[in-house]
Amino acid sequence: MSPKANILVLSLGLVALLAGCGHVANTSQQAAHGFAPVKMESMLDSNADSPVHTIVMPHDEPVFPPGPGRDEFVTACVVCHSPRYITMQPRFSRATWLSEVKKMKDVYGAHISDEQALQITDYLFSINGEAGTGKGPKGTYGE
Amino acid sequence: MELKVGNEGRGHWATLLPCVYAAIHYRSISGTFPDHREVNPSWIEYLGVSQAVGVNFMNRRGFLRIVGATGAAALAASCNRANSIAETLSSPTSFARFPEKTEMILLTDRPPQLETPIHYFRQDLTPNEAFFVRWHLEGIPTSVDLRTFRLTVSGHVRQPLQLNIDELRSQFEPTSIVAVNQCSGNSRSFFEPRVPGGQWRHGAVGNAKWTGVPLKSILDRAQVKAGAVDVSFNGPDAPPLPSVADFVKALSIDHARDGEVMIAYAMNDQPLPMVNGFPLRLVVPGWYGTYWVKALSDITVLPQPFSNFWTDKAYRIPSGPNGTESPKDLAKDTIPINRFNVRSIFVRPEPDETVHPRIPNEIEGVAFDSGYGIQRVEVSTDGGTSWADARLDPEIGKYSFRRWRASWTPRNRGRYRLMARAANTVGNTQSKAQWNRSGFMWNVIQQVDVKVA
Q1: Which of left, alpha, beta for B33 (phi over 0: left; psi -120 to 50: alpha)?
Q2: Chain B residues touching residue A82 (CB < 8 angstroms)
Q3: CATH number 3.30.565.10 is the correct assignment for the domain at A3-128
Q4: With a cut of 0.85, is the ipTM above it?
Q5: Which tens digits make up the pLDDT trace of B61-105?
Q6: Min CA distance, A2 vs chain B (Å)?
Q7: Chain B residue with minimal CA distance to A29?
Q8: Beta carbon pairs, A and B, within 8 Å
Q9: Residue B315 DSSP one-character state
Q10: Domains in chain B, please, with CATH?
Q11: B188 three-state secondary structure
């Protein structure tokens, strides 16, 4: 993947991230109980005397190496969680990565097709797979 | 070129094939190592650690030691991203400083999962700034206006309540308890075979003095109606997608009214850090942290059993002894995770620490269980062949860490394996082997390898 393509993918990821934050900020429950909406930019730390207590979360996320399936990973997975959810894991078999992706799709409702789920599995396995577990038939999503 | 990095106390070795990618500044956590490095040890760090946004990420001391010994030039020759991650050490440990927190072990940043470095357990009460952090959903609260904040109590009650913080502090008799909070998945990274999930070592636990209002007092004021079954607890953390279940947990009405479960507005006599649940947190002594709902804002009394994803599908353990099952034969019956089992954690020495021969070396740790109380801790310095009783510090409270100590005078230089096993007052002891698919409730007798030199 060319550097330009990388930047494009990154930008798309950021757009997706911001969209995710917007969703959070719009939930009515937060406003109802005194929890102010989450803003991601230029928020000042609250001072000790203020009744409004605010923190600024650090926003510093890893950028993944290029590879087939990376685009699907960046757009579908990083909306909901940091890529560090991948980097903190040990090397897993392809079957384990597939079951994790299935869980994200079927249990948590990640917006991905069966085909994209397989592409993401390939990508996760390629960057953090257990040697010797990716050979043979890759199977289908439905199995 | 292969580099070997010792992995904490597990007797494994991790292989790293480092790859130089970009100029990244590392900062060591002791004065032993240079302040800045311009090498990138693995693709993990390829992932672009940026200093520009105000977080300091640092890598593992052990890795710095290796880098220091081998040099950047050697690293540059070994770029091989495809094989660059360790088999048992998933990444060099990163550290990060989050708001109101000190430098902690970084598992994930969004939502945050931060682990307490073991040396903080040298103190009986874990400092707020170092207390572990674990959130489930991306949308975590970062701002609270105490002028409008209300704790609501509703559902199967005669008198629904809306209480602000001043009312909680002034209208109810305050109570304090010292209690351990531990993540269900603490020590998950030690299970073999490895299981997916937060790859905690032993620091997803902490001991604090919690001050607040007994939940019973609040439920009594709300006048729970006859026929109440469960009480559910919710905060403002919000799922990133509508398809993801909101994080809500529940206790039985009897548990909720036991007089010990409390709503804490102070932790170690200070307001809670935001990422630990400011302004209110449910405290459930002796039970795993999944029930200690953070940023608690809604309590609902239910006339029927509570049901949601986080209880029906997640945070479940095999129904057999100590939540154990076989990877080859997963348990069919599972139950919600509940009380702590008994365990002990080494505080000193730390893994790979060097101790001295022919002089007494103080070794210590903490033990705890779900409130029966620690009866005995035994220590072995010969890999489990012989055991001797450790001395127990006075009990702080039945839900607290119980510190144990032993003095050890190794005769000879060499490598030693230290072990510690705790037993509680009802005869529960630690596991010799344990596994479950979710990586919960680890309490295998800990082994710490140290060098006497």
Answers
A1: beta
A2: 108-111
A3: no
A4: no
A5: 333 333 333 333 333 333 322 222 222 334 568 999 999 999 999
A6: 16
A7: B236
A8: 188
A9: S
A10: 3-97 (no CATH), 151-314 (3.90.420.10), 343-452 (2.60.40.650)
A11: helix
